Amino acid sequence: MELHILEHRLKVASFDKQGIQVCTHGLIKLAFLAPRTRCKFFSLTETPEDYTIIVDEEGFKELPQSEYISVADATWLALNVVSGGGSASNLQPIGVTKIAKSVIAPLADHNISVFMLSTYQTDFILVRERDLPMVMHTLSSEFTLLQVINGEAVAAHDLGVTNGFVKPKLVPRPIIHPLSSPSNMFCVTSLDPDTLPSVATLLMDVMFYSGGSKESGASGEDSNHIRFFSFSLIEGYISLVMDEQMTRRFPNNVLFTSASGELWKMVRIGGQPLGFDECGIVAQISEPLAMADIPAYYISTFKFDHALVPEENIQSVIGALRTETAAQ
Predict the structure, then answer these.
(1) Please, is 181 exposed, middle or buried when counting C-beta atoms within 10 Å of its C-beta (0-12, 13-18, 19+)?
(2) E strands of 84-236, at which residues?
């Protein structure tokens, strides 16, 4: 197995919904006019609380300074676990539960905070740039470590890891966080970048203007129905996570769907904003799911974390996670 250290230097930021109009021009440019920027990594996720953006340094230049924007005080690097060889643009998705034991748990045990972004194509593990030497030391026995430079993966031997590196001490796992499961069902999908212009107006409405009321339908009085939408454009690949009812607004045959038409249920993690310094939150969810062999997408946002599991598994997942909570 290979661990690819991607070349993007990333910022993670939160946009207050009350001030999103200040940033809309820049966000539309990053999402729909990417060739006019030098941005290669862009992700925007809306939750009930805010918008979370993950963007590389070039893309960050497209956004204004504003009192409505909060930026995490670190530069982040994206890691990919890749099965077999191939370039970073030809990644094979592994799944967050498949890397729970080999990546997520060891990093948590060594007090390394991670920020997860699952997409239709693959899973990105974000770590703070300053933690990279410790990350490499922790994972070097399990993976071939490669650094991606100009799209090519080369051996990562010169990133500050030496034979004299002091092995980090194992740390206790954190307190288990509260869980909730919205009533929505979600789709994880994609579309051909060539078709993006044809649905750009619809996507802009979904992202910034519709407010979710059109998608909730009969669920309008359902207090357990939440607003959640995620759009990622990373190295030319588009990923979308949206409420199943929202997908009905799109023309037929535009969105990629699995043959089974699989739907996903969400587990939201956190009773209050989680912050960026605590370690083990992703492990709290991914390890029990890995033990039960249940696939999952995982999306961290500025304030809360979100795991998506197959609809048919949601009750067993909630039961397993609550059992884990009770055991702490």
Answers:
(1) middle
(2) 114-118, 123-128, 144-149, 152-155, 179-180, 186-189, 229-234
Tell me the residue type at 93: P
Between 314-327 and 281-291, two packed helices, what is the crossing angle to 10 degrees? 120
Long-range CB pairs of 318-324 (<8 Å, 24+ gap) are 318/179, 318/181, 318/267, 320/288, 320/289, 320/291, 320/292, 321/179, 321/267, 321/284, 321/285, 321/288, 322/179, 324/176, 324/284, 324/288
Mean pLDDT for the stretch of residues 19-48: 94
- Model confidence pLDDT, tens digit, residues 69-82: 999 989 999 999 98
DSSP assignment, residue 174? P
pLDDT, one tens digit per residue, over 114-131 is 999 999 999 999 999 999
Supply the pTM of this predicted model: 0.90
